[in-house]
Amino acid sequence: MFGTTEMQINMGPQHPSTHGVLRLELKLDGERIVDTRPVIGYLHRGCEKLGEDRTYAQAIVYTDRMDYCAAFAENLVYAEAVERLLGVEVPPRAQYMRVVLAELQRIASHLIWLGTHAMDIGALTVFVYGMREREFILDLFESYCGARLTYNAVRVGGMPEEFPEGWVEEARRFCDVLPSRLDEYHQLLTANRIWLARTRGVGTIDGKTALDWGMTGPCLRGSGVAYDVRKAIPYEAYADLDFDVPIGEAGDTYDRYLCRMEEIRQSRRIVLQALDKLPGGEIRGKVPRRIKPPKGEVYHVNEGPRGELGVYLVSDGSEHAYRCRFRSPNFVNLQALPDMVRGHLVADVVAVIGTLDIVLGCVDR
Predict the structure, then answer these.
(1) How many domains does the chain have?
(2) At 143, which CATH number?
(3) Alpha helices in 87-123 (DSSP H)
(4) Within a domain: 29
(5) pTM beyond 0.85
């Protein structure tokens, strides 16, 4: 009568914290997690195969649909990969414009992470505050490219348009407001005893294990590994800009929270520097009307909000990529979930899913 049996249950996909697109097979000993297996594929849309069916210019719009919380980062890494195939040089002004938009996108992405992560744990107010600042950024993107979620805001060789009149001043105004708003988030969460209880010591992973899994972004830096593509392999204008790479020590959910919060401050710092140094000149390089790169292959990476974004392209000399594949940090980071939740309670799974900051559109691709 005192024997115990393990029970296997499904968490998701119809579960608020898995957002309808992730299923976890949990093996439980009472409330304690023995093992788990993520089941993906609920949001598959074939973006990689579409990238082989459409021309290089047409494929950019499909990158929006992968990580739809950071569409500009996906646009950018794909365009950069095509530019490397072509051997095209992007004008300095376009490089700085790309940096400004990429960092604003990083801030917006981290804000939606903060709001949904806190809401899943039970702090609804933070979601409302985070969306307030994110709306400001979406207004900036809308005034630049006409879209608020899927932007298609990059062109091979440069940018589609100049910043509208008054746009730079609005971006500066947002940067002026942001520090006080970040202080509000810290007042609500950083020393909150409920937040500490739900995040400290939860989902701990050390730096070596995180590297073994191939984790990148804040999930890796929270474990003390200072790897950031913007520093390790500088692209666009990042080599000319000064910023720090925040890292954690414990490698738990709380450290990853602190890393992302500091990344918001560093992104603001980058935006202001890029706006100060914004050079004049053209915003488009010399790109042929019909983009037909010479035969060859390229693998290009940049630093998205969730980690290292990669694009592998193979050209056969036609207008279509022979092979188009994406390295998704969402997919790679999700692999480590079983290690991170093993031994924890069911309620802790919600906190760990939130700290991974996964977007299933990019996991399934």
Answers:
(1) 1
(2) 1.10.645.10
(3) 92-121
(4) no
(5) yes
> Is residue 262 assigned to a domain?
yes
Kindly write down the DSSP assignment for every residue of 64-79, as one continuous string: TTTSTTSHHHHHHHHH
Q: Please report, as a single letter, which amino acid is at residue 241.
A: L
Tokens of 186: 């810290």
Q: Judge whether 56 lies within some domain.
A: yes
Taking only the tens place, the pLDDT of each residue in 295-346 is 999 999 999 999 999 999 999 999 999 999 999 999 999 999 999 999 999 9
35 in Cβ contact with 50 (< 8 Å): no
Q: Which residues, 6 or more positions from 70, have their beta carbon under 8 angstroms from its beta carbon? A: 105, 106, 108, 109, 304, 305, 306, 359
Place of tokens 């294990």: 209
Structural domain including 168 reads 46-364
Distance CA 94, CA 47 (A): 26
Count of helices and strands (H, E) across the chain: 15, 6
For 16-72, how does the pLDDT look when each residue is reduced to its tens digit (9 = 90+)?
777 778 899 999 988 899 999 999 888 887 888 999 999 999 999 999 988 889 999
